[in-house]
Amino acid sequence: MSFRLRVLALLSLIAVTATGATAWLTLHQASGQLTDSVTAANRDVLSITDQLGRYGLDHAGWAGVSSTVRAVAQRTGQRIRVESVSGALVADSDLLAGRTARPVVGPATLADARPTLRLAGHSGHDQLPGTVWSSFASYVRESGYAACVRAAGGTVHATLGPAGIPTYRGAAADTDRHCRASGERAVPTLAEAQDFKHTLRGCLHADTAALGTCLTRWFTAHTGRYSPASVQVYVGARGEPPVGLSTGRTLLAAGIVALAAIVAAVLLSRSVLRPVRALTAAARQLGDGRTAGPVPVSGRDEIAELGSAFNRMTETLADSEHRQRQQIADIAHELRTPLANLRGYLEALADGVLPPSPELFASLHEETLLQQRIVDDLQVLALAESGALTYHRVPTELGEVADACRTAHAARAETAGVALTVDHTAPAVVSADPDRLRQAVGNLIRNALAATPSGGRVTLSVDAYDGHARLSVTDTGRGIEPDHLPHLFDRFWRADPARGGGRSGLGLPIARHLVADHGGTLTVDSRPGVGSTFTITLPLAPT
Known about the structure:
Blueprint (H helix, E strand, L loop, with lengths): L2 H57 L5 H12 L3 E5 L4 E4 H4 L12 E3 L16 H24 L4 E5 L5 E5 L2 H12 L5 H14 L4 H16 L7 E5 L11 H41 L14 H50 L6 H29 L7 E4 H11 L1 H7 L2 E6 L4 E4 L1 H18 L5 E9 L2 E8 L31 H11 L3 E7 L3 E9 L4
Parallel strand pairs: 8-10
Antiparallel strand pairs: 1-2, 1-6, 3-6, 4-5, 7-9, 10-11, 11-13, 12-13
Helix pairs in contact: 1-2, 1-8, 4-5, 4-7, 6-7, 8-9, 9-10, 10-14, 11-13, 13-14
């Protein structure tokens, strides 16, 4: 089975399973939501009843409650009907909205306008009886005041005190003065006082919390004589459509989701396979030995990253082949001329054109040594680049390496008329192969001597700083042009190809690889006409 069919089958199975599970979960969860909606409706009933009860308490009656019923109905979206206990209409949101009153849904809920006594934090065990009795007396007095204002045709509004007892105020000043004096004459009856004492004797044996609960029950029972009569509140209307679920719509939605998932699977397989086909064709071209062009890349997903990585790989392979061909051409160029010279001299000797002489044999021997050195350098560079060059690391003092290199090249420096000196004042011990380090430094010294005219100076400097050791080779030669610096470490590259000077053009690449294998860096700083400084930086060995 092809990749497309496997992906399509897998995604189709996932889509059908997911949509089926989604449909089942939707029905199951929606059933739970129905239960939650019923609970929420009950909460609405309690909230509406509490708001109407607060209105009765604030206004000491139900006059003017219609505006509150209308506002609550608009805010909650519920139909509200308020009746007295005897069934007389107090307010109906349908009638207030200009509609025909719909049949109510029972049972009714009572809206109680009695105050709720709050004792928490007001007094201790000994002071509770006095607090409850004074609160009851205060409500009796305020109820008498409110009754007087209503009898005079006025309206009142309550302000709740800390214990939950309302303090009423009338709108008209003259009525307020008259009724305030009337309210002061409203006091609890003797029977109520005796009943309170009797209840108190039965409650005193309890702790503070139980005492407060006991006295609060007495307070609630006796304030009913003075509070407005309770009203019946109906919420909702008979015949309203129940909230339900449409199974057909659920299944239709599930089918649409499944179809969308299948279409997405087809599009996904096409978008995945198109770049995969391009990658496959390009890989086959590489496998057949042909040059493969870059594959098209679009987007930022994993397939695009794969295409970008493949393009980088083909570029690297092409660059590697180009460098390999260039290296072979460079080697052939380096060996062709000296070998041609050797062949010409040997043929001349064999034909008797040139007489044999010690000078001629010495020149031929020197040319042979040069070819041997080129071959040896190529071998060292190949081993270094492949990571197969072996090292014998020991604690090595860079100052000793510099001294050994100065001694080895002193004769050549003296012949060239160049002063070769060493400057090191502080110890700099590194973990390295001393022979390979001397080889790298020797290559730098040979280049410096070749670039420095007679009367110049080449200085080897050794110092240590910030956990690193540094060995610098500084000359006072002709320097290097800035545009030549990027090619300085290329194989067989020379700033002046006509001035080989017996050098192979491999010294700097070898030196760089040897230093890099020791975990260090080789850098150059050069100014034309002033001189150059090649610096080897290596990590110091642990103490």
